[in-house]
Amino acid sequence: MKRKVLVRVDDRELVLTNLDKVLYPDTAFTKAEVIDYYTKIAANMIPHISDRPLTVKRFPDGVEGQFFFEKNVPAHTPDWVRTVTLPAPGSGKNREKIEFAVIGDLATLVYYANLAALEVHVPMWRVAADGGALPPDTLVFDLDPGAPATIVECCRVAMLLREALYDDGLESFPKTSGKKGMQLYVPWDRGAGTSDYAKALARELESRDLGITSVMAKKARPGKVFIDWSQNNPAKTTVAPYSMRADRLPTVSTPLTWQEIEECESPEDLVFTAPDVLDRVAKHGDLFAHAHA
């Protein structure tokens, strides 16, 4: 029998279940600890996901069990959860439209954490008050190392990107993916051309650096850093800043300082768990505070 706990979050009542279920077996990290992390990081995380249609990756039996991506709001979602209905071209389930949830408050974030939605993914654009899609406010480069390359090589490429972006009058903000790679976010107020711009810059860097590829084919990646510019496609999402990841450890997609990028010598230098991130935020504040236009 599932043990249920009734809690009040702000002015909402939520029923939490299975709080002692272990979701990360290697560290005995429980669902209660996942909910606690998301509750404590909410003030820093919500500004980065507010007004963005939500895709979650749910792990009801923990990171070693079956998982599924969920875009459409679950059945029995409380009526106070904000939703927006958007076109879904190319949907894998042949749906013309999808009703997305939008996380804009602590209660909604806790509701999803209780569903074992360990990973939160959002696009680089927001919706307006009426639910219509707005132009992108962020450009993203997803840096994916092909073994034996690691995040150490990603840091080198991130610095090359930072320099090229700076020459174009653009600022950039790095974060870990929470797994093996990292992302670079660029505040963007130049309209809908993010994919074209990112592709052109990735190809330019590829042409002058043997350690970089802009080609998605796996055979092109060994020993190189793949600059995935395609994440700027409006239909795609990227793991959100401060989202947990479903890995062996309860790692988090963690905003970084450029000093950390410059000084990275080992992949272990940039592995941060949920407790680590709470300590970092207490020390640094939100390093991604200006990562969106």
UniProtKB/TrEMBL annotation:
Keywords: Ligase. Coiled coil: none annotated. Residues 30-288 form the DNA ligase D polymerase domain. The keyword Zinc does not apply. One of its GO terms (molecular function) is DNA ligase (ATP) activity. Pfam families: LigD_Prim-Pol. Its EC number is 6.5.1.1. It is an enzyme of class 6 (ligase). This is Non-homologous end-joining DNA ligase. It comes from Sphaerimonospora cavernae. The lineage of its organism: Bacteria, Bacillati, Actinomycetota, Actinomycetes, Streptosporangiales. The gene is ligD.
